[in-house]
Amino acid sequence: MIEKVIHVGVLLVLPPLLLGVINKTKAWFAGRNGPVLLQTYYDLFKLMRKGMAISTTTTWVFLAGPVITLATVLLAGLLVPMGRFDAPIAFTGDLILFAYLFGLARFFTTAAALDTGSAFEGMGAAREVTFACLSEPALFFALLVLARVSGSLKLTQMLHGPAGGFTAAVAAPLVLVAIGLFVVLLAETCRIPVDDPNTHLELTMIHEVMVLDHSGPLFGVILYAASLKMLVIGSVLLHVVFTFQTGRAWLDWPLFIGELLGLAVVIGIVESVMARLQMRHVPYLLIAAILFCGFGFILLVR
Amino acid sequence: MILAAIAVLGLSGLPACVFSSRRAAGQRLTTLLMLLGSGLGLSGVVMSLNESATASLSAAWFLPWGRFAVSIDSLSALFLLPVFVVPALGSIYGLGYWKQSEHPTNGRRLGLFYGLLAGAMALVTISRDGVLFLIAWEVMAIAAYFAATAEDDNPEVRRAGWVYLIATHVGTLCLIAMFALWNRATGSFALSSAQSLSSELAGALFILAVIGFGFKAGLMPLHVWLPGAHANAPSHVSAVMSGVMLKMGVYGIVRMTALLPAPDMWWGGVLLAVGAVTGIAGIAFAIGQHDLKRLLAYSSIENIGIIAMGLGLALLGRTQNRPDWVLLGLGGALLHVWNHSLFKSLLFFNAGAIIHAVHTRDINRLGGLARHMPLVMGLFVVGAVAICALPPLNGFASEWLLYVGLFRTLGSDVQSGCPAAALATVALAMIGAMAVACFVKLLSAVFLGSPRHPLPRHLHPASTSMMVPMLILAGGCGVIGLFPMLATGLLEKAVGVWISLPVAEDSMMAAAPLNWITMLGLVLIILVGLITLIMRFLPMAKVVREVGTWDCGYSRPTARIQYTGSSLGQMLVRLFGFFLWPKTEGPQLQGVFSGTTQFKSLVPDTVLDRLVVPVFNLAGRYLPWLRIMQQGQTHLYVLYIVVIVIILMIWGACGN
């Protein structure tokens, strides 16, 4: 019970910190001081206190976009284990619900963007739905590999590592899957090299351009849901690459949170040393992710 | 009782023919009869489900072959439910959509053949004799032709009708061959279990069944008739054709595979592969369309692909002796049959309401309809979310069963699994993501943003008789989505008809915990409600001003700069360009300040427009000498028949 409470607590409180860590890392690489670690929390509070400006073109879909996104990502977060602790909700086949919840979020995010009738937001929505068609197969190849090595269809057990320990036959596919999943993480959370959250050119963005017209608390919800999504997909990836546990609960929680922050540092490093890809080259990156995960699968079942 | 229902349904259009062509009384009577027939039929289905023995009837009849043999088991009952529900709802819908007073020339004909179509489909699902089956099948095909070509003064409708007629008869030809082979192999036309067939013969029958029924179901590349016919038929006929008639093809494949002996591995493999190709190609073509109803038609092809994948999994399970694969594959496929008939009919009714209001099917001319028809838009969102298989609606429940089944093919070692089949999950995932793209495109192009072209001054509102059927269908989507376990009893029984499973392993709930779907669906709805409430009552969160869309400081935006449906799908169309082969024309840009120019893009059907039509044109060019045979003189045709019969008699005599 206490574990579940901590799980929900981490899920609700931690996400904005990840963005802070990423920004701090990037600032450090650029030789700046950068915003304080808790800046995203301040931003969220500020946004929550503001009023909203809403376009006259929009309908209820515009409001439903952020709300449904937050609800689905929260629910998805309850399906993913943290460290060695089981997820609060686990049942056979929950991995499919996990993937499709993000689909529901995508449906309403893009619909909300198109609701404004802005050409720029249309571009963002078109990119989002297109790239998802490529990241989804990569994700499912990864899930296939995880299901096969663990012999389970529950995310909790799938992510707790292979049933028979790490033999070479299992480890090699998992390495490939980890690479593929990292690309999926970058694409789904809209980081460099797929998307640049800091750019000022609306023409070149995906996620940020879709939410141009959202303001105030609605934008706060979007920002929060985005960081939450990073935490959720990040914890899936962490289970694949990092399986060390101490066996003591009071050590394992800090360990897992440390892993998450470490992942944020890695993302920050990737963002600092790479440039954003040309938009027409993004599909190649995602196809590479499909190939990594696909080869992992072939290697496993050969 | 069901036979009476079929008779009432089949003849429901007849009395109306004596009424005046401009008065509504005849149409009301037709609808009343349709409702009566469906009510009778539904109560018959429920009664038969409660009885333990299967009701059947077999009588000799006037034809020298076959018998009048009908029977109803759970499998028939499962397919009968949509047959009795959707056409009746469509008939109510037609009261508002296809008013007799507005269509005096073809309203009565449409009513007549619409009823006949429903009756024939019901007969198809219960007939247990090859000859009776073929007769019902042909009546269904012809009735659908006349119902779909109601507006036969339009050349486009006539062309679509021709393509349909040719395709359906090629399919029927395969079915005739199949039943002839069946008769030869088993000694009768009776459709009863034939477990003693050799595997080569069974394989041949299977291939003929897949091709013959595949034409009707719309498996790629046999789907050529489908987009045109669905797009040009009146919307409630499209709904019945897409929601129910395609499923008769599925029914045929399910029924035949139930009768044939245990399949080889390649049967399941073929259906899985064909299903995956059909699904991905179908939804890719759908993304390329800008005609509202053509898009929906292609998405039907996609869903048939998903159903075929489920059947493939079930066949593999039967070969490998894995009850859980059969249960999840066939159960998921059959549940998807129901679900698709619910949400696709809903979407076609929606499309009809839109066309009724704005008189165009081109989604690139629309936009901003949400303000004018909010209820239609809400129902459209329900249908779109359901068809994208997103939780918490019904599409998710059936695809989830399929996914769980496909994941189970992984196995933990080579002996217990068939990992190649698990690759189908990746195809299914891709189909899911593309469906989201497709229906976001449709939703936004029609309802969201602002109108891209001036809308007609007066938008015909959707009448009550059009809204009620849509509300019922949307309710069905919600109920099956949240409480899928309501269906499991019937699904398990139907799977039991297909193959008798060991008692210990015939529970669907044990293989896939559907109660979790219910719970998390409700949790999701509660979460959304909660966040909405918090947002609403957050003291600070209020709208301080309403402004125009920001559009990055563009000072004079017009509605024309919005993303259209085609521009939204363009990246995906280009990505799949290797088989979509989109056609583009223009724009001609010259100099720095180019003058007025045009850009056109179109995704024609690769199989029909680039393969079938050119081949037919070639045949028309090089084979005109065959016309010598065809002079339009009936007595000569009769002579041909006589000559052929004599030749056959001689051949038969020599053979003996």
Main beta sheet strand tally, sense and closure of chain A: none
Oligomer: heterodimer
| Count of DSSP H/I helices of chain B | 23
The greatest inter-chain interface is formed by: A-B, 79 and 84 residues
Our count of helices of chain A gives 12
Strand proportion of chain B, as a percent range, falls in: under 5%
What's the domain count of chain A?
1
Radius of gyration of chain A: 19 Å
How does the helix and strand content of chain B classify structurally?
mainly alpha
Distance between the termini of chain A: 42 Å
Q: Would you tell me the structural class of the helices and strands of chain A?
A: mainly alpha
What is the number of strand segments of chain B? 5
> What's the arrangement of strands in the largest beta sheet of chain B?
1-2
Could you list the spans of chain A in which at least 5 consecutive residues all have pLDDT below 50?
Answer: none
Shape of chain A: globular
Number of domains of chain B: 3
| Number of strand segments of chain A | 1
Low-confidence runs of chain B = none
Mean pLDDT metric of chain B: 85
List keywords for this structure.
heterodimer, B: mainly alpha, 3 domains, 23 helices, 68% helix, globular
List the topology elements.
The complex is a heterodimer of chains A (302) and B (656).
Chain A: H1 2-13, H2 15-30, H3 39-48, E1 52-55, H4 60-77, H5 94-115, H6 119-150, H7 155-159, H8 168-188, H9 207-210, H10 216-241, H11 249-273, H12 282-301
Helix pairs in contact in A: 2-10, 2-11, 3-10, 4-5, 4-10, 5-6, 6-8, 6-12, 8-10, 8-12
Chain B: H1 2-11, H2 25-50, E1 55-59, E2 68-72, H3 74-97, H4 107-126, H5 130-148, H6 155-186, H7 199-217, H8 226-232, H9 235-259, H10 265-288, H11 292-320, H12 323-358, H13 374-387, H14 394-408, H15 419-446, H16 464-482, H17 485-498, H18 508-511, H19 514-537, E3 543-547, H20 565-575, H21 577-580, E4 583-585, E5 600-602, H22 606-622, H23 634-655
Antiparallel strand pairs in B: 1-2, 4-5
Helix pairs in contact in B: 1-2, 1-4, 2-3, 2-4, 3-4, 3-9, 3-12, 3-16, 3-17, 4-5, 4-9, 5-6, 5-9, 6-7, 6-8, 7-9, 8-9, 8-11, 9-11, 9-12, 10-11, 10-15, 10-20, 11-12, 11-14, 11-15, 12-13, 12-14, 12-16, 12-17, 13-15, 13-16, 14-15, 14-16, 15-20
